[in-house]
Each structure stands twice: as structure tokens, then as C-alpha cells.
Amino acid sequence: MGSGKTDPAKVADGVVDEAMRGLVLRSGEGELTVGAALAATAALREAADRKLFELVGFAREAGASWASIGEALGVTTQAAHQRYGSKIKIARKSRRSVS
Questions:
Q1: In the prediction, which pLDDT does 30 show?
Q2: Burial class (CB in 10 A: 0-12, 13-18, 19+), 19
């Protein structure tokens, strides 16, 4: 018997599937074709990537280390910094110049 915990990956798969179907319906595509599903899933992936960059930026501004961010993302400290570090700095500079 298991510990009663739900596998987060399975839950995420269900959430993405539901979101993909909802996005296809809302986009006016009508029926769920493979092409519509691919386009919707690609849009969801891009939205998730934007959200990750935003959240990593918030974490850094709150004082989180690259090690803790990497751990939360399931990657090394170096991988987290390499993927998000320079883009976070650019985003901060643009927000400051707009203010």
C-alpha cells in the first residue's frame, strides 16, 4: 500500500490535459484535433515558462539563493542560475526603467 500521497507528476499531467482541452474550446477551434491540441499545449508551455521566470524573479527579490531555487525546480544551482540568471537581471532593469 502507498502512503496515500498523490503523485504530483500525475496530477500535473491531468491539470495540463484539462487546461489544453479548455484552451482549445475557448480559442474557438471547435473540435479537439491533434493540431489544435499541439498548439494549445505549446501555448501552455510558453505560459508556464513565463510564470517560472516571474516566480524565480520574485524568489530572488525575496532573497532566495540559487541553490534553493534549483532545489525547488529539481535542477542544480548552476543550471538554475544559467537558465534564469541573466534574464532575471534584464527583467528587473526593464521594470525599473518603466517606473
A1: 73
A2: middle
Q: Which of the residues in the chain have pLDDT under 50?
A: 1, 98-99
Which single residue is written with the C-alpha cell 524573479? 57
Q: Could you tell me if 39 and 45 are in contact, meaning their C-beta atoms sit under 8 angstroms apart?
A: no
**43-24-46 Cα angle (round to 5):** 5
pLDDT recorded at residue 86: 84
Which backbone phi and psi does 63 adopt, to 5 degrees?
A: 100, 10
Residue pair 28/11 in contact (Cβ under 8 Å)? The answer is no
Alpha-carbon span 22 to 16, nearest angstrom = 10
Can you give the length of the chain in residues?
99
Spatial separation of the C-alpha atoms in residues 9 and 17, rounded to whole Å: 12
- pTM score over 0.85: no
